[in-house]
Each structure stands twice: as structure tokens, then as C-alpha cells.
Design goal:
Layout lengths: L6 E13 L8 E13 L3 E6 L5 H6 L9 E6 L2 E2 L5 H7 E5 L10 H5 L1 H5 L6 H10 L16 H13 L5 E5 L7 H17 L3 E5 L3 H7 L2 E6 L2 E6 L1 H5 L4 H23 L5
Parallel strand pairs: 3-8, 3-9, 6-7, 7-8
Antiparallel strand pairs: 1-2, 1-4, 4-5, 9-10
Bound molecules: adenosine-5'-triphosphate (ATP).
The site of adenosine-5'-triphosphate has 12 residues, from strand 2 and helix 1.
Length: about 270
């Protein structure tokens, strides 16, 4: 696929290794191995790949949870390593599995933590608006995290990520711990918010079906490199190479097996 000419986000030969604890012969474990790629403003990109392929490490170079050893990450042309943390918090929303709500703070304070760290206060009206975006009514503002279901907590995580009106939304397995119905509903909601709020979204997921249904571009990682960069449609038509196709085969075979079961004669 062609690289977008006006990328909001750009990875330029990004590399990151960790001291190896796995093998004795290699001193380092290369998590991200020279990734270069542009992410166009407004796109919804899914980052997929086997466990340990480097997805989270790559994502964390964007909001500086883990700086690269070499290479650059540019946000609207600026190197994120030169950016003030408050500016990055404003421009980048981050949602991850487990959410990380502060247990001693109510929902409103959790949602407003980003603005507060930047020296402003989210008004009650703004908190209500953010709750509405994630389809929760205003009465949730005063609840404590332990009074919420996992799905509600994840919704609060999304509201918190949107509190600073970010340009870019990063999500790391955001729906991984949810039951399939909640996961489906929240995925659709996030996709709708992506359009409504003119976001650029980058989502790590293990679930190729989720990536195919939600994203408009899919990057497949393997051993720290991007081995396929395709649209869902082109992946479904067979593009992307053997690693990508092995991942697409899983939901395709499940769908075929279910369709076959539905056609079997006999009592329900
Ligand atoms: N903080 C760390 N310290 C040491 N090694 C790390 C650290 N974070 C990641 N790694 C290693 O870097 C490699 C890539 O890990 P990463 O979490 O980016 O993969 P991933 O594709 O996101 O995996 P998963 O899908 O299981 O979350 C792995 O070998 C992992 O062990």
C-alpha cells in the first residue's frame, strides 16, 4: 500500500531493544527492529501480530512510555522526544487493557485527571459530555471504580483518553478483557467516536476479526518488523503474505464453520 503523503504520525527507522532475559547467547531482545511508516490523519489503523512481535513497544514510543533507542517518532512533523509531556498528554489519548483507574478517585476525577495535570479543571458539564460520548449517564460521575463493571470501567478509560480533545487516540488491547457482546458494542462506539471527533486512531489487538471490522488499515508485525500493510479488503482478497494470511484464516474458517452448521438439516 502507498504511504500517505500527509502523515499525522510518522515512524522513522524506529528501533528498540531490551536486555534479554530469555536467551543466554543474545545480549539483547530486539522488540522493534527499524520500523518506518506513516499514519495519515483521520485513519483508523490496527496493529496486529503474534504475542511478543513488538506491537505495544512500538505504540509506547508515540506517547513516550518507552523511547526508541534510535530513529524518530514524529507527530505532525515534531519529534515527540522534544515535546513537553503536557503537550503530548493533550494531543494523544491512551487507552489500555485494565484501564488503570485510580481506585480512590471517583469517575469524574479519573476522567479529569489529564486536564488537572495540565493545570485546568474539567467542568461538570464537560464530564457529563464525556460520559455521554461513551454512552453512560451523568449519574456515573460520582461512582467509585470498584462500583463499575469491567465494560463500564473501560468506557471510563475511553472518556478519560478523550478528555483533552486529542488528535491521536492510541489503544492497546482496549477490549481484551471484555465479554464478546460488550467488546463488540464498545468497539463500534469507538469507531463512531473516531469519525465524530476527527480522530486518528492506532489500536493494538490480538483479534484479526476485530481489526478487519474496525480498521481501515492493518499493519501486521512479526519479530519487530511490519511484514504487511494492507486494507481489510485487500487482506480478505488474499494480499499481505503468509503471516497476514495465516491470521486472516482464523476468522474466515470460523465464519465458514458457523455458516456450515447453520445449513445442516435437523432439529435446532
Ligand atoms: N519492559 C520490558 N523489559 C524487557 N523486555 C520487554 C519489555 N517490554 C517488552 N519487552 C520484550 O519486547 C518484545 C516485544 O514485546 P511487546 O510487548 O512489544 O510485544 P506485543 O506484540 O505487544 O506482545 P503482546 O501481544 O503479548 O502484548 C518481547 O520479547 C518482550 O519480552
Amino acid at each position: 500500500m502507498d504511504q500517505p503523503s500527509h502523515a499525522l504520525l510518522e515512524f522513522v527507522n524506529v528501533r528498540k531493544a531490551f536486555a534479554s532475559t530469555v536467551t543466554e547467547d543474545s545480549a539483547v531482545d530486539v522488540a522493534v527492529d527499524g520500523v518506518s511508516c506513516g499514519i495519515a490523519a483521520g485513519s483508523f489503523v490496527a496493529l496486529v501480530g503474534a504475542s511478543g512481535s513488538g506491537k505495544s513497544t512500538l505504540l509506547k514510543t508515540v506517547n513516550r512510555l518507552g523511547d526508541p533507542d534510535s530513529g524518530q517518532v514524529l507527530l505532525a512533523g515534531d519529534n515527540v522526544q522534544d515535546a513537553a509531556p503536557a503537550m503530548l498528554r493533550r494531543r494523544i489519548g491512551y487507552v489500555f487493557q485494565g484501564v488503570g483507574l485510580f481506585p480512590h478517585m471517583n469517575v469524574a476525577d479519573n476522567i479529569g485527571i489529564g486536564p488537572r495535570l495540565s493545570g485546568t479543571r474539567a467542568s461538570d458539564g464537560r464530564i457529563a459530555e464525556l460520559l455521554e460520548l461513551v454512552e453512560l449517564d451523568g449519574s456515573y460521575a460520582g461512582r467509585m471504580p470498584h462500583e463499575l463493571s469491567g465494560g463500564q470501567r473501560q468506557r471510563i478509560g475511553v472518556a478519560r483518553a478523550l478528555a483533552g480533545n486529542p488528535q491521536l487516540l492510541l489503544m492497546d488491547e482496549p477490549f481484551g478483557a471484555l465479554d464478546p457482546l460488550t467488546r463488540d458494542g464498545l468497539g463500534k462506539r469507538v469507531r463512531a467516536l473516531h469519525g465524530q471527533l476527527n480522530l486518528t486512531t492506532m489500536m493494538v489487538t490480538h483479534d484479526m476479526a476485530e481489526a478487519l471490522l474496525l480498521a481501515d488499515r492493518i499493519l501486521v508485525m512479526e519479530k519487530g518488523r511490519i511484514v504487511a500493510d494492507e486494507t481489510p479488503r485487500s487482506l480478505l482478497k488474499g494480499a499481505g503474505g503468509p503471516i497476514a494470511q495465516a491470521m486472516v484464516a482464523v476468522p474466515r474458517e470460523q465464519a465458514a464453520a458457523l455458516a456450515q452448521m447453520a445449513q445442516l438439516d435437523g432439529p435446532a
